[in-house]
DNA sequence: ACATGTATGTTACATCAGTAACATCTGTCA
DNA sequence: TGACAGATGTTACTGATGTAACATACATGT
């Protein structure tokens, strides 16, 4: 699974709050922060579909996007990669330290902890 | 300060163990892991100088490279960036959780803690 | 002085990500 | 039914990074 880039992560974040959303809706929610033109948002969405980060669907005639992986699963991959390459920590990772990050709910932290610690393979 | 890429970080890591080193020496230490040709290593070194990640010097007629920033300073930047964008944690960051990472000595962890927590500006 | 081996300088090419325009298609309103 | 708005498809350009070869210069032994 390819890791999302910084920009792609920004888009995933809005879709984790609410999905599916159309390109137009995503632009409205993420565009201001990203300072992107609508075109740019669309290109990025298209590439994310290519990379299987998003799954496209057609609802009421428009194309809408849904994240393929849950927030916890995606972040566990990103965090594993980070800790592995930057800090060279391979085994179980400490996540309790971040539980006040607001990025994830208690439930999601539980899932992330499970993914990060219960061996490298996933369901 | 530009963040080092994954490959650049690998080179920094060998130079944090011992510096300055020549391109040839760096290749001997990092090449096998990176699986790079000597040419590739040299190109990367050159770009790192451009980005002010390394400072070149000439010792005994050969070009040697020294990291511009300490391990602690570099990693603090990388970690701040990561926690900011991925986990959206802006204030003081918890690092105690990683103290068994082996990447840094006690002294270096102290420096890193200081850099990460004592406001955004640095000396 | 010449050859041979390192060291250094220069150039090249692919891919990906950032950033965006142009072109087309289609449905809806007047 | 014709025009316009919005949706989708296609193409383009730049910079960074991965990856590497070619070409040249310099030192050292014979």
Structural features, described:
- The structure is a homodimer of 123-residue chains.
- Chain A is mainly alpha-helical.
- Chain A folds into two domains: 6-67, Arc Repressor Mutant, subunit A (Orthogonal Bundle), CATH 1.10.10; 71-117, no CATH class.
- Chain A has helices spanning 6-17, 23-34, 38-50, 71-86, 106-117, and strands at 21-22, 54-59, 62-67.
- A three-stranded antiparallel sheet of chain A has the order 1-3-2.
- In chain A, helix 4 crosses helix 5 (106-117).
- The longest helix of chain A has 16 residues, at 71-86.
- Chain A is elongated and about 45 Å long.
- Chain A binds chain B through residues 6, 9, 75, 78-79, 82-83, 85-89, 94, 96-98, 100-103, and chain B through 6, 9, 75, 78-79, 82-83, 85-89, 94, 96-98, 101-103.
- Chain A binds a DNA duplex (30 and 30 nucleotides) through helix 1 and helix 3.
Q: How would you summarize this macromolecular structure in one to three sentences?
A:
The structure is a homodimer of 123-residue chains. The first copy, chain A, is mainly α and 123 residues long.
List the helices and strands and how they pair.
Two copies of one chain form a homodimer.
Chain A: H1 6-17, E1 21-22, H2 23-34, H3 38-50, E2 54-59, E3 62-67, H4 71-86, H5 106-117
Antiparallel strand pairs in A: 1-3, 2-3
Chain A binds a DNA duplex (30 and 30 nucleotides) through helix 1 and helix 3.
